[in-house]
Amino acid sequence: MWNSSRSASNCSESADFQYVLFPVVYSSVFVLGLAGNLFVLGYFLRTKSATVPANVLLVNLATIDLLFVLTLPFRIAYHALRNDWIFGEALCKITGCLFFANLYGSSLFLACICLERYVAVVHPLRHLHFRKLRYRVGAALVVWAVLLAAILYLALRGPLTQPFADGRTACLENFSSSSWKGRISSVSIFAAVVGFLLPLLLIGVCYPLIACQLLVAPGMQPGSRVVRRKALRTVLVVLGVFLVCFVPYHVVQLVHTLGRVGALGGCSLIRATYVARRVTMALTSFNACLDPLVYYFAAERFQWQPNWKRICCLKKLQRPVWLQVLSAHTGSSAAENTMPSTTD
User: Fold this and answer.
1) Where is the G-protein coupled receptors family 1 profile domain (predicted)?
2) Region of poorest pLDDT, from 42-56, 72-86, 143-157
3) Could you tell me if 140 and 61 are in contact, meaning their C-beta atoms sit under 8 angstroms apart?
4) Distance between CA atoms of residues 141 and 129, nearest Å
5) Distance CA 199, CA 246 (A)
6) Measured between alpha carbons, how far is 58 from 161 in angstroms, rounded to an integer?
């Protein structure tokens, strides 16, 4: 989550490739994530299915992705300026907190979706009870409450901007050793346990249980089999998002945090993990582009492809009446001219 810091050992890090990597990756994520999540939210609003119990968690996931995507232009400018934050402390806290909320809120919402699919497949009778709207809304409110508590702790305990030695202003990096040993390490470890390890454990348990239930029930009705296979694909997609976007970053982040607080390694470890965190942090942003795949598999009656027949530019163009009459007259004349003679 965090970049370089001013530790007690005065470790210096360098990763000049980040000034190109982040603007390129974040620009791609901004375009794809904005289009994908706006399409999803627009679909839910247009079909009035945003409050359907099965879609409540998906709407929250799309919302948190969209909020994160809207902060990316600021991060693009920051890295293009070689990590110089020119937008002030308030915007640094807003963009940083939304990055934090997306990173761990996405994990928690994805875990909730997997848990719901597990209950639907393995405990279908119990699932009928938990399909009620209030349970989905309650789960979403719990996730937002956890995120809000962590964000407030992070934002109110001190500034998130720090000056570099050359006069540039850092945002979400260059923290002092005391900050790392205080609020930064506390938030990082809490978020890693609650927002990553627990969801990953839950997803890792749900997937094999759903697969086993699908395999040991060969006599199920065709409709039930379709539902269970859809649930299995949903959990598989969620697991893939975790493995690609979240696992590399959190492994590196945990090692880096332990190095910063002096519990593991030294300057060589901090320098190595700093470089690795540039790449893995860029990977985490792709979850805003990959989450629409979850919507496709998990949403109730979600149709990813629009009805192109209804788009005006692809309709068969209706010719004017005068052109139709002229064409008909021309066709009739041509037919008469080519008709074989029947006279002797």
Assistant:
1) 36-295
2) 42-56
3) no
4) 19
5) 11
6) 33
Name the CATH superfamily, with its identifier, for domain 5-308. Rhodopsin 7-helix transmembrane proteins (1.20.1070.10)
Q: Taken in order 120, 126, 129, 132, is the CA torsion positive or negative?
A: negative
Please choose, from the candidates 234, 232, 248, the residue with its C-alpha nearest in 3D space to the C-alpha of residue 286: 248
Cβ atoms within 10 Å, residue 24 = 12
Helices (H), the chain: 18-46, 56-80, 88-122, 124-130, 133-156, 177-179, 185-192, 198-215, 222-241, 247-260, 267-284, 287-298, 321-338
What is the structure's pLDDT at 309? 44
Give the domain ranges of the chain. 5-308
Closest to 165 measured CA to CA, from 1, 4, 2, 17:
4
User: 242 vs 7, 111, 202, CA distance in Å?
Assistant: 31, 10, 12
pLDDT tens string 293-332: 887 776 655 554 444 344 344 344 444 444 454 445 444 4
Q: State which amino acid sits at residue 83.
A: N
| Paired sense of beta strands 161-163 and 169-171, if any | antiparallel
Helix (H) or strand (E) holding 163, with range, is: strand 161-163
pTM for the complete prediction?
Answer: 0.78
How far apart CA 292 and CA 191 sit, in angstroms, is 24
> Phi then psi for 317, rounded to 5 degrees?
-65, 135
Residue 221 is predicted with a pLDDT of 57
pLDDT of residue 137: 92
Tokens 């975790």 correspond to 242
Distance CA 254, CA 257 (A): 5
Q: Any bridge partners for residue 161, and if so which?
A: 171
What are 147-191's pLDDT values in tens digits? Answer: 999 888 888 888 888 888 888 999 988 776 676 777 677 778 888
- Characterise 184 by phi-psi region: left (phi > 0), alpha (psi -120 to 50), beta (else): alpha
Measured CA to CA, the distance from residue 15 to residue 273 in angstroms comes to: 11
